[in-house]
Design goal:
- By secondary structure, this protein is α/β, with parallel strands linked by helices.
- The protein contains twelve helices and 13 strands.
- The protein folds into two domains: 123 residues, Aspartate Aminotransferase, domain 1 (Alpha-Beta Complex), CATH 3.90.1150.10; 215 residues, Aspartate Aminotransferase, domain 2 (3-Layer(aba) Sandwich).
- Strand 5, helix 7 and strand 6 form a beta-alpha-beta unit.
- The longest helix has 24 residues.
- The chain is globular and about 60 Å long.
- The model has no long low-confidence stretch (mean pLDDT 96).
Length: 360
Amino acid sequence: MSIYIRKNIRDIDGYTPGEQPREKNLIKLNTNENPYPPSPKAMEFLKGFNSEKLRLYPDPMADNLRKTIAELHGFHIDNIIAGNGSDDILNIAIRTFLNEDEKIVCFDPSYSLYPILARLQNANTHSIDLSEDFSLPENFLTSGLDKLSEQRKLKLFLIANPNAPTGNAFLIKDIEVICSKFKGIVLVDEAYADFAEDNAMRLLEKFDNLIISRTLSKSYSMAGVRLGWAVSNKSIIREMIKVKDSYNVNMISQFLAIEALKDRQYFAETVSRIKKARSILVHELVKLDFKIIPSQANFLFVSPPEGNGNDLFLFLRTKNIIVRYFPAPKTKAFIRITIGREEDMQELLNCCREYLKTRQ
């Protein structure tokens, strides 16, 4: 049967999402889900939802949702496209802008879905190695970008900011330089931006080649709803809308997203709790001599003192704590820890202390 399958599909491994274990009594800190419930207003809406509406198709353009998002960011509805999670937005962007054999540009390490989506489009990836501390490489904003501009077929620059899986954020002034010098489209994936000190939204007024994507999955506690969006200039959004599936955002997701986005007080309280817990966890892990990449996301990327991320990952699993491990050479010393509830963070710390005793 393989002769019927496209070669570019046969030649790649699919994306490996974080484990969704079925066991009970696990402390789940591996997929950057929000530990707190969704907006109470959204849940009240769900309880009163008229199921008779489900026999109808949803609004294919998600206009009420797009209007809510536009008001949130200070743009027009025509600057917004909604998607089935921000992964859908990434897929739409790649299908919109890349021809076969053209390339995306992305940093390494970063979100591993980027090159997979490119290969599905029969496109390729130009990777740029981050520095040892996962900051931008030396001279990248000068000679590095100049060299990129000399290369052909570099069409779409995908930048996770804050970066995943490392959690550090690139300066917005550096994103601005990239937008000004890169001869293509720049998509800033701001899945974790609500936990950061800054974001790139204001740059949309200055650059026609910029797209910013957001999601409900992290800061709004709605990973299961699968709702993301992008903001850009009207001409880019118009072309992306041509590419999206007809009804790519289901009815319930549209309604729930509107309620959650309007509940600003609950959103702010939840984000504040996570940032506070992040700060406490950093403080305690520093005492244990862990190496910690400065995070502006809802997770930490940390390495134990002896630099063996896999051993710590496996040890925590025996303690019913599940975190994320990335075995690539640049990341194998680290584990990624989702910021959870206060009691979960305390149990994690207790297990880290126990782990260190086993290494003495």
